[in-house]
Amino acid sequence: MSPSKLPALTGLRAFAALLVYVHHYNPFPKSTFLHQLAQEGYVGVTVFFVLSSFLITWNYADKLRTTEERKRFYLFRFARITPLYWLLLTGYYLLQWFTKGKADGLEQLSNFLLIKGLIPSQVFSGIPQSWSLTVEVCFYALAPLWIFFVVERRWAALLLLYAFFGLGLVFFYKTALSFGSFYTLFGRFFEFGAGIYAALWLYKKQEVSDFQFKTATALLFSSILVIAYVLAIHYFHLLAFYTEWLLYNLLLPIAVGFGLVGLATEKSLLISVLSSSLFQTLGKASYAFYLIHIGPVAIVLQRYVSDNNLVLLILLWGVACGLYRWVERPVFKYLTGFSRKDAEEQRNISDFQ
């Protein structure tokens, strides 16, 4: 089973992006259960994190042993996320300069260096949703060692790594535990770990259960967790911090990882839909969509074209597909097209991560 034969995972990216869109453009009346449920669409970010580590492990588990291989890994990661992000961020700050005539140099630097997600006061500056890129970059930095520890069963090293996350959360964010828990790798590490273990379950060709409803079970369990969170917070008034840690930081990643195994090994109507040409197109453009679905592009479309959420959704996907086709993918090919081997790897993985 090669990465290029897992098209449902590309389609899943479109679904995750749609969840985040629903969170930001909630279509239901306030104070209704459906509104409260739609507000939980930010769990699409969890899907992105688990999927990211799953695919990176799937593609690189045996390719990160040498310095040269790690260099190529970091080149591919750099080429994947920074060019389009920097282009949109530059446009944002130019627009800000023309309209407001002022700029915060430190804020701009932290945004361009992708470290703003580590700083509570700047986490939503620039392109607000790009805080998640800081989490991704932190994972990329540790991925070669992290995956190696799991593959080689270096339990002591893994224990130290996880202790680092736990202690780092308390040490660096002791006065902002909620921020550190939900906006940094110190609190989101379990999501990436779940993706790594799910990928290795398949990658190492261990016996995969004959149970043929892994995808459906994962979807049902994930839905139950989201509904349980809404009920716990809005109806039983439990503490949001501990409830979110248990349901979203710990249990939901397990469900998503299990679902990824199902999407990679089963056949179903859902998998057929996610593998369709429409979802493949939207999935490939999902990164661009994520970067533009709130911010200047969305504001311009709302102001001068339509403020209807459904129309806006269609327009944003159109713009995102254009950015993917004429900016993101060509630049990625240019930056990584140094050899035939690199070109082959592009064909296998560039549309998945």
H/E element order: HHHHHHHHHHHHHHHHH
Secondary structure: helix percent: over 70%
- Unreliable stretches covering 5 or more consecutive residues: 346-352
For this structure, the quaternary state is single chain
Sheet/helix structural class: mainly alpha
Tell me about the biggest sheet?
Answer: none
Radius of gyration: 20 Å
What's the number of helices?
17
Number of domains: 1
Structural shape: globular
Strand content: under 5%
Task: Give the averaged pLDDT, no decimals.
Answer: 92
Please name the defining characteristics of this protein:
353 residues, mainly alpha, disordered C terminus
In a nutshell, what does this entry contain?
This protein has 353 residues and is mainly alpha-helical. It is built from 17 helices and no strands.
Question: How is this fold's topology laid out?
Answer:
Layout: H1 7-24, H2 33-38, H3 44-60, H4 67-100, H5 105-112, H6 131-151, H7 155-172, H8 177-183, H9 185-203, H10 214-234, H11 240-265, H12 269-274, H13 277-284, H14 286-292, H15 296-304, H16 309-336, H17 340-349
